[in-house]
Amino acid sequence: MKPLHQQEPVREVCAAALQQLGRDCPSMTFAVMVSDDGFEVASAGSHAQQGGRLASMTSSMQALGDAVAREMKLAACDHILLESINGHILQRRIPNHELVLCAVFDHHELVGRAVFATSECASTVSTNLMRQAA
Amino acid sequence: MAEHVILIAGPMGAGKTTAIQSLSEIPVVSTEAANTDRATANKATTTVALDYGEITLDGVEKVRLYGVPGQRRFDYMWRILEERALGLILLINNDGQDPVGDMLELIKDFSALQERGGVVIGVTRSDVQEYPHTSQYVDSIREVYPHITAPVFSVDARNRDHMLITLTALLFNIQAQSEAPMEDVA
User: Fold this and answer.
1) What CATH number does the domain containing A58 carry?
2) What is the pLDDT of residue B183?
3) Average pLDDT score over chain B
4) Closest alpha carbon within chain B to A39
5) Domain membership of residue A14 as a residue range
6) Do B33 and A37 touch (CB under 8 A)?
7) Which value does ipTM take for this structure?
């Protein structure tokens, strides 16, 4: 079987969900879906050329989040929020799949809104990939 | 108690995570992800951020061991972790496509760490692939980097004694380099 990032049906489901996320949150500047080991599956937004680098970093961040949560006996890490002066980055594991979503928002987005929208996006991807596999 | 940070680097599949598991006296903190790049290394998982372990030597020296991901796309982790490190154990799997070339390239990648601390080479998987011999690694280092001293060992990353000898050699090498007169240090 091909790796996730080379499976066209998986890429299509992820790309559609990222585009929907962009429509739901106009302040989203860039989003990328990556495999657990840091390969870009799909991306959307204005900084697409940065996708490869961000994909690897997303994988590292998620793995570090998992390691810290494990160390504190808090089970798996669901999402990570990184707030900076000019915006925030939210990354979130896709339930039941070895995929992680990373979305970059400018400072116009409310954190709560970003948390909710990425949760919806992750849930949609998970459901659609399960349907596809059935 | 003196504390040192030592980095363990090398190509994907060289045995970096295994080496830290062999050495560490605490449960190893690992950041493994399912490996989809089976063409590069046919193993189930791969390190995507770091491995972390600790060992106390002679009851007086604590060594913090950090393993870095093997793939170059994670090289930002190399740069982040090398800032705190004193020396480098470079593990090279002998069954790679160009193990001597990999070693030379990685010595260059970590040249800053080599210059301020030291480096030792551990050649793994020699039981799977006999050639090149360790002497070829030594000769290549002498030819390309004549100014550096980098001992080369054939090791099994699963063997604690092998890894302990490698680590001890690195610490001696670092000490010798720091005590050398300035004109002897490149």
Assistant:
1) 3.30.450.30
2) 52
3) 92
4) B36
5) 4-129
6) yes
7) 0.83
A60/B48 CB distance under 8 A:
yes
Interface test with B, best of A2, A39, A41, A56 (most B CBs within 10 A): A56
What CA–CA distance (Å, rounded) separates A15 from A124?
12
User: What pLDDT does residue B182 have?
Assistant: 56
- Any chain B CB within 8 A of the CB of A65? no
Torsional class of A96: left (φ above 0), alpha (ψ -120 to 50), beta (otherwise): left
**Tokens (6 digits) for A55:** 């994909």
**String of DSSP letters for B47-113:** EEEEEEEEEEETTTEEEEEEE--SSGGGHHHHHHHHTT-SEEEEEEETTSSSHHHHHHHHHHHTHHH
A43 CB within 8 Å of a chain B CB: no
Are B34 and A36 a contacting pair at CB < 8 A?
yes
Count how many domains chain A has: 1
Q: Work out the pLDDT band at B186, boundaries 50, 70, 90.
A: very low
Does residue A105 fall inside a structural domain? Answer: yes
Please identify, in words, the CATH class of the domain defined by B2-34+45-184: alpha beta
Is A23 domain-assigned? yes
- Residue range B79-92, pLDDT digits in tens: 999 998 999 999 99
For chain A of 134 residues, list the mean pLDDT of each consecutive stretch of 10. 85 96 93 94 78 88 94 91 93 95 89 92 96 87
Note whether B29 contacts A: Cβ–Cβ < 8 A. yes
Domain boundaries, chain B: 2-34+45-184
SS3 state at A67: helix
